[in-house]
Structure formats: C-alpha cells, structure tokens
Known about the structure:
The protein has helices at residues 34-48, 80-101, 105-109, and strands spanning 26-29, 64-69, 111-131, 138-145, 159-161, 188-190, 196-201, 206-208, 217-228. The chain is α+β, with helices and mostly antiparallel strands.
Amino acid sequence: MSNPPASNPSAKPEITGWGDFSTPVFSSRYPQPGLLNSALKKFILGQEAEGEKYRNPEYIPSNQVRIFESSFDLFKDPNQAIQELKMFFLYGIVHAVTATNGYSNEECSRLKVITDAWYHVTRFGGYISSHTHPNASWSAVYMVDPGEQPGDMPKGGMLNFKDPRINANMYRDPGNENWKKPHHVGSINYDMRPGDLLVFPAFVQHEVTPYFGKSPRITVAANCSFNWQARS
C-alpha cells in the first residue's frame, strides 16, 4: 500500500461564505417626485385639517407622540396622486416578493395582494416608538416630505431599524465588531429623501426618532399580505 501524499503546507483550501440570516431591504426612488409629492402633501394636510374625520380610530397615543395617523384605507381613495403612489408601492413590494421567493411571472400573476395603507403627519417633538407590523409579510414607507432639520437641534425624524437577530449583540470583540453589510450588527438609521421608498419584512422592529422641525414631516406607509389565486 502506498503512502498518502504529504500535505502541502503552502496550499490554501478554498473557503466559501454566504449570507444566511441576512434581512432583505429594498429601496427605490420615484422619478422626479416633486409634482407627485406636492399633490400628496396638499391632499394629506387637507385631510389632517378636518380633525378626527380621517384619523385612525385605533390610534395609540402612547406609541405615537404628536403624530396624526390616518385610517388604514388610504389606497381606496380615488385621488389621482394617491392612486399613482399606490402603483409605485405595489411595484416595489411585488419586486421584493419576486426577488426573495424566486417566483416566476406565472406565479406572480396569481398573487393576490391585501394592502393596508395610511399616512403620518409628524409635528415638532413627534416620534413613533419601536414596533413591528403583525399580520403582514411586507411593509413599506414612502417619504413625501422629511420636513426640516434645525441646525441647533440633533438630527431627528430618522427611520431606525433594529437588528432582528435578538442575540447578535451578546458578545462583541474585534472578531465581530466591524461586520459589514449584509452581516451588520445593531440598528441602522435611514435618512430618507423626498421620493424614497423602503420595502422591508414586517417582522423588523423599527421606530421614528424624535423630530424637531417646525414644518410637518409627512410619510405614507403600507402593510401587505398575500394569498394565492386559483388558476383560471
């Protein structure tokens, strides 16, 4: 029997890495959003001015401070700007679903999307505490108007995402404290511009940090769940 060849100490075996447990987040930007956002702002502030008529009847003041939250049927309104925004939301969300599940065009055509949508108008000192969106698989946020950032106040009105891996911070040292995306550990702030859309899994804990501008900060959000439609 021949002896096995001596190992080559200079040979370096291949090492393969991948991104298991990473969290998919998608972004898009509405082309030249000025006209759309102007129409959305006029519509939203007009509804806010009517008081309780358009407020979410299940509004939780302990979770949302100095914020007007609308009812969750926003995308049913026939307003042209709202319907245009709805199509942009669905474009982004369906892209996320297709990309992460690997669905074919035929499978995508059979998806039935159930959507709740609403807007937030945030005034000086307003914020939203950390929360998730139960009974949905995907959520999305669109920035209509980020308001202003006073130079003498800390930057506020940031959309902050929490790391969904609850034990990821249990021990930190130079071996893991500088992980780069998509392995990043800890929270992430998104400084959204007018026209930006973020799409993310509804299980991600997120919050809006206190806002210190004098003009209103305006966003539109949506939750989506999905069913299969029967083949025709």
